[in-house]
Design brief:
The complex is a heterodimer of chains A (135) and B (422). Chain A has helices spanning 2-24, 29-54, 62-96, 102-134. With 135 residues, chain A is an all-alpha fold. Chain B is globular.
Chain lengths: 135, 422
C-alpha cells in the first residue's frame, strides 16, 4: 500500500506536466511544480488515510497507527514540502530565464525523491510498531 | 438472452482460427514497404523496393510530364528481395514516376522523385526533414509531408526506425519492416527522393564506432543499407558521409556522426571527415550549405542537458570548436546545421557568443515519437523556438534572394514556427 501510494504519486507527478506539454506544445516549469506538489500531497494523503485502515484487519487501532505513522514520517514529509519549495524557486527562475533555475530544480527533484522514499520507510516502521502495541 | 450452444461456439471458434491462420497468406503484399528513391543526382537516382516474390524484377521510369510514351526499363536485380537500381541518363531538375514490375506481372505502387538540378542551375529548392520515427506512434506528420508535391527531397536524419534489441540480421529486418510498414511512411518514401543517414537507433542506443560489437554492427549496417538507398563509394563502401548538390542553390553535407567516433582520441568525426567538411563548405559555390548533422551541435550545455552531452558534440569540445571556428573563418554564407535526435524541435543560433554564434541550427523532429521529458526546453537567446509537437520541417531555399524560409509543420497541418534567415 505504501509503495502503491508512491507509485500513484509518481504517476500524478508525471501526468500534470505531460498534460501541460500537450496543451501548450512545450513543457512549462511551473507545471512541473504543480505535478510535484500534487504528487507529494497524494502520497501523504493516501498513506495517512489508507495504510492505518489496513491494520484494522489484523485488530490494530487505526487512530493510534495513524498518529504513529505521522510521528515517524513527519520530518521527511516536511523535507518533501521543502524540496517542493526548492523546485518551485528553481522553476520561477527558469520561467524567467532559461538555464538559470535548472540546478535548483534538479536539487528540488532529488530532495523530493529521497524524502518521498523516506516518508514511506519511516511511516511503515511507525505503523508496524504501533500495530504491535495496540493489537 | 439466447442460450449459448456448444456447437455454435465450436463453429465460431473454428471460423475465427481459420480466418486468423489464413489471413497472412491471403493478403501478403508483394511490395509491403512500397518504393523509394534516394540520393538524387542531376542525371538519376537510386530506386529501391523490397519484393517478397521470387521472379526477376524490372524498374520502369518515365517523366511525370512531357513525353511519357517511351518509359525507361531497367533490370532490378535484388538480394533477399531488396533491390536498389542506379538509374542514370535522366534529365536534370525533372519530375519522374517509377514502379517495379516482376516477370510474373506483379506491379509495385508508383514512386515519384525529382532529379537534382543541373550543376549551374539556380532555382528555388524545397527540402523536408525529420528524425526519430518510432513504430507505434502516430505517423500523421509523415502523412502531411507525403501529401505535398513541392518537396524536392526529404531528409530522414537518423532514427528512421528503432531497431533497439535486435541482434541478428533477421531481427533487424523485422524491426525495419515494422517501422517502415505504416501506410503514411510508405507514402512519404514514395513521394519524393530521400536523403538518409543513420544515427544511433539504427544500431543500438548511443553506439559509437570504437565501442560496438562488430557482429551487431555488421548486421545493423546491412539492414540499414537494405532499406535506405544511399550512394556509396565502391572503393570505401563503409564511408557513409557524403555530399549532394542541387545546382547552385544548395549543397547538402551528410555527416556520419557515429561510425568514426574514437572517444580516447577526442574524435567525434574522423580527421578526414572533419577536414572534408570544412574544406567542402568553404569551396562550395552553392547559396545554401545544409549540414545534416544527426546529433545537435548547439550550446545545449545547461544542467538538464549534462547527462546527454557525452553523446553529442559537447562531449568532444576540441573538435566542436575546430569545426565552428573553421566554418566561421571560411566566410561561407548560407550555412545551416540541420540536426535531430533530441526529441524536440528547436531553432536558433549554435551559440550565444563565441564559436558558432553566427551560425544557425534547426533541430527537426521528432517525426513520430514521445517528446523529450525535460521540464523546460531552450528559450531565449540564442534560441528562438522550441516545441514538443511531432513535426517535420521544410527548408525553402531561394538562391535569388539568398533567403531560406524554415517552417515547422505539425501533424494536423499547422505551421508551428516560421523563420526566414539570410
Amino acid at each position: 500500500m505504501s509503495i502503491g501510494s508512491s507509485v500513484l504519486g509518481g504517476v500524478v507527478a508525471l501526468s500534470v506536466p505531460n498534460a501541460c506539454t500537450a496543451q501548450f506544445g512545450a513543457p512549462r516549469p511551473m507545471c512541473g511544480v504543480a505535478g510535484l506538489a500534487l504528487a507529494g500531497a497524494t502520497q501523504l494523503l493516501v498513506s495517512l488515510i489508507a495504510i492505518p485502515e489496513m491494520f484494522r484487519l489484523s485488530g490494530g487501532d487505526p487512530a493510534a497507527i495513524r498518529a504513529a505513522w505521522w510521528r515517524w514520517a513527519r520530518i521527511p514529509a516536511a523535507l518533501l514540502a521543502v524540496s517542493t519549495l526548492v523546485f518551485l524557486a528553481g522553476s520561477v527562475s527558469e520561467q524567467h530565464r532559461y538555464g538559470s533555475g535548472q540546478g535548483t530544480m534538479l536539487g528540488g527533484l532529488g530532495g523530493a525523491a529521497l524524502s518521498g522514499i523516506t516518508v514511506d520507510v519511516m511511516g511503515i516502521i511507525g505503523a508496524v510498531r504501533a500495530a504491535r502495541v495496540t493489537r | 438472452m439466447r442460450a449459448l450452444r456448444r456447437r455454435t461456439v465450436l463453429a465460431g471458434l473454428a471460423g475465427a482460427f481459420a480466418t486468423a491462420g489464413c489471413a497472412p497468406f491471403a493478403s501478403k503484399p508483394s511490395f509491403p514497404l512500397g518504393v523509394a528513391a534516394g540520393d538524387a543526382l542531376p542525371g538519376g537516382a537510386l530506386l529501391w523496393t523490397h519484393f517478397t516474390g521470387d521472379d526477376a524484377l524490372d524498374v520502369v521510369v518515365w517523366p511525370e510530364a512531357g513525353d511519357v510514351s517511351t518509359p525507361r526499363r531497367q533490370a532490378a536485380p535484388d538480394e533477399d528481395g531488396f533491390a536498389v537500381v542506379d538509374v542514370t541518363g535522366l534529365d536534370p531538375g525533372t519530375l519522374y514516376l517509377f514502379r517495379f514490375e516482376s516477370a510474373d506481372g506483379q506491379v509495385s505502387p508508383h514512386g515519384r522523385f525529382r532529379t537534382a538540378l543541373a550543376p549551374d542551375a539556380l532555382e528555388v529548392v524545397t527540402i523536408g526533414a525529420t528524425s526519430c520515427i518510432k513504430h507505434g506512434h502516430k505517423y500523421d506528420t509523415l502523412a502531411r509531408a507525403a501529401e505535398r508535391t513541392d518537396l524536392d527531397a526529404f531528409v530522414f536524419l537518423g532514427d528512421a526506425v528503432y531497431t533497439d534489441g535486435a541482434s541478428t540480421l533477421s531481427d533487424f529486418r523485422r524491426k525495419w519492416a515494422d517501422g517502415l510498414g505504416g501506410p503514411e511512411y510508405v507514402a512519404l518514401r514514395g513521394s519524393t527522393s530521400m536523403i538518409t543517414q543513420w544515427d544511433d537507433h539504427e544500431v543500438r542506443n548511443n553506439w559509437e564506432g570504437d565501442k560496438v560489437d562488430e557482429k551487431l554492427l555488421t548486421a545493423a549496417r546491412r539492414a540499414f543499407l537494405e532499406h535506405q538507398p544511399i550512394r556509396q563509394d565502391p572503393a570505401r563502401p563503409l564511408r557513409f558521409w557524403r555530399t549532394l548538390k542541387w545546382g547552385l542553390t544548395a549543397e547538402l553535407f551528410i555527416l556520419d556522426a557515429r561510425s568514426e567516433r574514437d572517444r580516447a582520441q577526442g574524435q567525434y568525426l574522423s580527421p578526414e571527415q572533419l577536414d572534408w567538411l570544412v574544406s567542402s563548405v568553404t569551396s562550395s559555390p552553392a547559396a545554401f550549405k545544409l549540414i545534416l548533422n544527426t546529433v545537435p551541435i548547439g550550446a545545449f550545455d545547461s544542467p538538464f542537458f549534462a547527462p546527454f552531452n557525452e553523446d553529442n558534440w559537447q562531449g568532444f569540445p576540441a573538435q566542436r570548436e575546430e569545426l565552428l571556428r573553421g566554418l566561421e573563418a571560411s566566410g561561407a554564407t548560407g550555412v545551416i546545421f540541420v540536426s535531430g535526435d533530441f526529441h524536440f524541435a528547436c531553432f536558433g543560433r549554435v551559440a550565444k557568443e563565441g564559436p558558432g554564434s553566427t551560425l544557425f541550427e534547426a533541430l527537426v523532429g521528432p517525426g513520430a515519437n514521445g517528446p523529450n521529458p525535460l521540464p523546460a526546453y531552450p528559450s531565449g537567446d540564442p534560441w528562438e523556438f522550441s516545441s514538443a509537437v511531432n513535426n517535420y520541417t521544410s527548408f525553402e531555399l531561394d538562391p535569388f534572394t539568398k533567403k531560406a524560409t524554415i517552417r515547422y509543420h505539425a501533424g494536423d497541418g499547422r505551421i508551428i514556427f516560421e523563420r526566414v534567415v539570410g
